[in-house]
Amino acid sequence: MSSPKMAIISRRSSARRSFIKQVLATGAAVSASSAFAGRAAATMSQARGIVALDHVAIPIQNVEEMVPFYRELGFGVREAGQIVSIHFGDQKINFHRPSLWQSGTFTLRAAAAQPPCGDFCWVWEGSEDALAEVLVRADAEIVAEGERAGGRDGGDAVGQSVYIRDPDGNLLEFIRYS
Fold first, then answer.
1. Among candidates 136, 133, 119, which has minimal Cα distance to 173?
2. Quick one: pLDDT at residue 37?
3. In this predicted model, what pLDDT tens digit does every residue of 28-61 receive, in sequence order?
4. Directed axis angle between helix 34-47 and helix 4-30, to 10°?
5. Nearest alpha carbon to residue 27 among 69, 56, 57, 4
6. What is the C-alpha separation between 151 and 166, in angstroms, rounded?
7. Do 2 and 38 fall into the same domain?
8. What is the mean pLDDT of the chain?
9. Is residue 73 domain-shared with residue 158, that is, in the same domain?
10. Backbone angles phi, psi at 162, to 5 degrees
11. What is the separation of C-alpha 79 from the centre of its chain, rounded to a whole number of angstroms?
């Protein structure tokens, strides 16, 4: 026999799975081939209102190391109170300082998220040599590299990837498409 608490947890888990499926389906539709992507984005925009990823947020631990590291990689960096944000194109990643995510009162976050919890991939449009120079300036060690399927063309496009870790241990991938 289920307790009322278990029923609530079950409903939350079901709602969370449903939401994740909806987001993944939307992302798959929007990432389809370029001819299909325009129609899919228009359809998704009309059906659900989702047209792009605006930002993500993760907790960070080593603020004094993270800020200069991301500046050296070429990101715009803004610091405002308990949040540091890095900017690229029209997107950003919010980094929650320890004083925020460890406070116990900040609930607009994934409850179990702790550094490192990020795995991010950026499209690099410069040369391989230019990327190598940026990584040297940031004192970033390459942990892996090779050919990978990326997100373009519905996940069928292949690019050359270079993987590094930031000062908190998050995995960063830079993919270059031909």
1. 119
2. 52
3. 444 444 444 555 555 544 566 877 888 999 999 9
4. 140
5. 56
6. 22
7. yes
8. 82
9. yes
10. -125, 130
11. 19
Give the structural domain span for 114: 53-177
> Domain total for the chain?
2
Task: Write a three-state SS string for 100-122.
Answer: HHCCCCCCCCCCCCCCCCCEEEE
Q: Which residues lie closer than 8 Å to 119 by C-beta, 6 or more apart? A: 170, 171, 173
CA gyration radius, the chain: 19
> What is d(CA 93, CA 50) in angstroms, rounded to the nearest whole number?
18
Q: Is the same domain home to 59 and 98?
A: yes
The stretches in the chain having pLDDT less than 70 are 1-48
Residues 46 and 94 in one domain: no
